[in-house]
Amino acid sequence: MIVGVHPLAGFDKLLHYRVPEGLRAHMQVGSLVRVPIVNRMHLGIVGAIGAPSDFPADRLKNVVELLHPFPALTPDLLSLARWMAAYYACGLDAIIETMLPASVRNGAGLKTERQLSLVRRLDVPELETLNRRAPQQAKLYAFLAQQFKPQRKTLVLSRLGITAAVSNALVKRGIIREDERRIERVAYADDWAAGEIVAALPPALNTEQRAASDAMAAALKEGTFGVSLLHGITGSGKTEIYLHAIHDALEAGGGVIFLVPEVALTPQTVARLRGRLEALIPQHGAVVWHSHLSDGERLDGWLALATGEKRIVVGARSAIFAPVQNLRLIVVDEEHEPAYKQDETPRYHGRDVAVMRAKLAGAHCLLGSATPSLESFLNAQNGRYRLLQLTQRIDSRKLPDIDIVDMRIEIMRARGLTTLSRRLVDAMRDRHEKREQTILFINRRGYSSSMLCSECGHVESCEHCSIAMTYHRHDERLRCHLCGAERPAPVRCPKCGSIKIRWRGLGTQRVEEAVKRVLPHARIERMDTDAMTKKNRFREVLAQFRAGKIDVLVGTQMIGKGLDFPNVTLVGLVDADISMHVPDFRANERTFQLLVQVAGRAGRGDRAGEVVVQTFTPQADAIQFSRHADYAGFAAGELKVRQDFRYPPYRHLIQHVFRGPNPEKLQFFAEQWARKVEQALGNLVELRGPAPSPIEKIKDEYRYQLWYFTAQVTKVVAELTKLRAEFAWPDDMIQVIDVDPVSLM
Ligand code: ADP
Ligand code: ZN
Ligand code: ZN
Hints:
Blueprint: E1 2-7, E2 15-18, E3 32-37, E4 40-49, E5 61-62, E6 65-66, H1 75-87, H2 92-99, H3 102-105, E7 112-118, H4 124-133, H5 135-145, E8 151-152, H6 153-160, H7 164-172, E9 176-182, H8 207-222, E10 226-232, H9 238-251, E11 255-259, H10 267-280, E12 287-289, H11 295-306, E13 312-315, E14 327-333, H12 350-361, E15 364-369, H13 374-381, E16 386-390, E17 401-406, H14 407-414, H15 422-434, E18 437-442, E19 452-453, E20 470-472, E21 477-479, E22 486-488, E23 501-502, H16 508-518, E24 524-527, H17 537-546, E25 552-556, E26 568-573, H18 587-599, E27 610-615, H19 621-627, H20 631-645, E28 652-660, H21 663-681, E29 685-698, E30 701-710, H22 713-726, E31 734-739
Parallel strand pairs: 2-5, 10-15, 10-16, 11-13, 11-14, 12-13, 14-15, 17-27, 18-25, 18-26, 24-25, 26-27
Antiparallel strand pairs: 1-2, 1-4, 3-4, 3-6, 7-8, 7-9, 19-23, 20-21, 21-22, 28-30, 28-31, 29-30
Adenosine-5'-diphosphate (ADP) binds next to helix 9.
């Protein structure tokens, strides 16, 4: 038997080895093996079975070890790895490394513990003898005789101050026994679920939910690949649809992957899901998968899935690579979230990889959101995805009213810039008196280098690209980072002539101070990445907020995800339009998503909620359509713009970023390269740039970027990879290819 192995040794190649007799029984495609390369050992994944054509088989070395009797990469995962390598312009070895948790790659084994328990009780004379002859053994016996469950050996020995020789003696005499047991570490088992109200019994579905759930049941019964997009407004009960589908898939003997954007930010979703799953189907307790697991925890979870002991995993993006057996269903909650994109190599998109894995595994993929990405929505319109809709909130609760506050008027009134409008201050005071809670959001995607006129709300944008121009302070010019167009920065607003052209975002700290001034007696907490660096701080603040110990919570939209606080009756968005000035063609989409999601946080209990949105551009589509959460209206207009400019989702975008210490050199090589691509691939791609990146310098490194628009990603990536290898790049230049980027900075 000969196998081809993809070694995890820092290069992308298939090497062949012979399999000795003793390792053959469980050797298969996807197996994790240890092999010699030159004179070192490396782990690798079996990619093929069979002899190489170009190397005499009798000169091959042997596989040294087979780490598990089951494949570390299921067949669908191995195919997925190959697709990802070709699509995301990345070596297969890097993909395989991403797919396997570090603890698995390190070749660690099962984590076990030894336990002691009583086998038989001694009668009185026996006990007396033991007491007399071996008092330490008697002590251990007495302890174990009082326990109902087996006890951890290490703990017992240290607690009683005895050695292993003592327990060994009792084992030998058949009085106690020692067992080896796998340790289960269940992340968040106690603390994360604390304080969550978990309905033991599922609620009866309403008519819309039933229709969506029936459609899912039918889709799952087909047992073939398919994608459904669940578009349900905030509070419409999407989670119930997920739960029913999960239940069906498990009952049919299948496995399930449930993805959330960030586990740490969605503790409620995870806790609810776990609670319900455990109540519904106790034997399938879910594996929770996220970046803060210890190696041991992750390994345990991975093994439980790989051996089929557990069949469901809940986690962030990388859970899509969990070795779930007989995969039938993948759920992607909040599928529009940019957090699904990994911003380092391999730069994959969790949602897109989920759809591809479902395809390769013949499973169903369920994407859910209140504000689907236009990519997914267009697929639903084309009939490629099944569209399921929930248009009503549970119990027909109303969506909160949204007040749009025109900050231009506010500034005239206040005779200067203000952070908080009168409307928002009044509403906050009112809540404070009623002992109800307020959340204030600040845009995280703040981008200080765009120009916004605070008289008329005008933003300078590029006529070729329909994105905001970027202000460059050092030479006082505006640039389009997409096509490179540039002109002097105006001193007066080109539209209204005002000199109040500003470029500045608000920090959470400033907003917190402003709140303190108007509500001196309120208890205020700030929640942003700066304030949350301390571990567990996030959970602490959330717990305090839930307990009513905080009146006003100020934070970036990281606090907006999937949280459900019944006593929050006011939500304010302080700077709605900041995200519209980001030089990105998705700026409007992001703003609309933000507004709708934020509004969904208000009035989730019995009381009606109110939302106050402050903006300089009240007439903008993203703001107007969000007032009534009119997704269809927004999507229709926005898709039209995308189609006119042939932006995604009508074509794919590949972003090529060049970085280096010398801007002239960077520009020179980027231009040379662009010329070469134009010659070779001009018929496959449309190039834009190269141009300086909107953030043109990070940590003394200059950045240039080049964009390729194309309908055929894999083909273009293959060609680019070839060209890239032939091109004479200077040593001090780094270049990165990002396929389907979500951030264009
Ligand atoms: P979404 O994810 O769509 O915003 P959720 O799934 O969080 O909405 O549901 C909102 C609330 O409604 C939750 O507290 C949930 O338990 C409850 N709920 C969902 N479906 C029903 C139902 N059919 N009957 C009663 N309550 C429901
Ligand atoms: Zn103006
Ligand atoms: Zn332009």
